[in-house]
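Sat 14:20. Reprocessing the chain from the morning session after the first attempt stalled halfway. Input below, unchanged.
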Amino acid sequence: MKIAIAGGTGTVGKHVVVATTTAGHETVILTRATGTDLITGTGLTAALQGVDVVIDVSATSSLATRESVHFFGTVTSNLLRAERAVGVKHHIALSIVGAAKVNANYYAGKAVQEKMLHAESGGWSLLRTTQFHEFTQQLVQHGKVGPFQVVPTIRSQPIAAAEVADELVSIAAGDPRGLEPDLAGPQEERMADLVKRLLRAEGNRKPVIQIPLPGRWGRGMRDGSLLPAPGTRRGRETFAQWLESRDC
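Finished this time. Tokens:
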């Protein structure tokens, strides 16, 4: 099977590439370095020739509502158009548990992506997962304020990106199934606690300050909107196990 991966150099994408290759599939990474542009659509039709499945795990670094909506709306539209042009039968997208409910800032873009797929008559699968263990690394990078580490107040049930990648590749091996059952991490955590544990594991003792963000976005992070419903499937690897096994 030939599988194209949009966002194949990102946090989840790197794991998807490994999982795809390990499963014995041919891999096409859709990136500017390989001559494709997800925003302009340049090179997509040519790159998707002979492709059976597209897995979209692309992401934007912007947290602003307008930019996120533009990114996910444009990328989804361009991919679907190119896929139809060359006869790709299966489009798989990754979203976030609770994103459509919060529908603000970064999550507004994911809500648009989900809506666009639901408007399609078929040929797609959508997997929603909770935030990744790896998200703590991003928070450390962006939350440095003088001698302090600032972290938004977030209730989450994080999952390892590698497990998400394995699930996406498993979905790719079958027929399109529409909305897949959600997938969450093994246990609820406070993101500030996880950031502190990550810093301590790296020998960093700086104080961690938890700050509630304003607006619907911040409220959704702290009121449980991003937590899975009871009975949701759970991944295996805990944050402690991920922290122990990760590459520093």
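The longest helix spans residues 65-86.
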